[in-house]
Amino acid sequence: MINQFQNHPDPIRQKIGNRLQVLRGYRNQADYKSSTSITANTCQESLTLARRIISSIDSL
Questions:
Q1: Three-class secondary structure assignment of the chain
Q2: Spatial separation of the C-alpha atoms in residues 57 and 1, rounded to whole Å
Q3: How many CB atoms lie within 10 A of CB 27?
Q4: Per-residue pLDDT for 44 more than 90?
């Protein structure tokens, strides 16, 4: 799904895809890299990205 958004000609959909990719990276770090600490800043950034993604999808 991320690739479909990123490869879409609509720049809004591309931005959604890029934000989803960032969130996926954060999740993979949390799930698979036990040496990585999750900071309050990363948590806040994740929440902000998620809200922006939802808002963007709602406006499509």
A1: CHHHHHCCCCHHHHHHHHHHHHHHHHHHHHHHCCCCCCCHHHHHHHHHHHHHHHHHHHCC
A2: 13
A3: 11
A4: yes
- Rounded average pLDDT over 5-33: 95
CA separation for the pair 45, 23 (Å, rounded): 9
The pair of structure tokens assigned to 9 is: 């000609």
What are the φ and ψ backbone dihedral angles of 36, each rounded to 5 degrees? -85, 125
The structure tokens listed for 35 are: 């040496």
Give the tokens for residue 32: 């698979």
Closest CA to 52 of 26, 22, 27, 25: 22
The model's pTM? 0.90
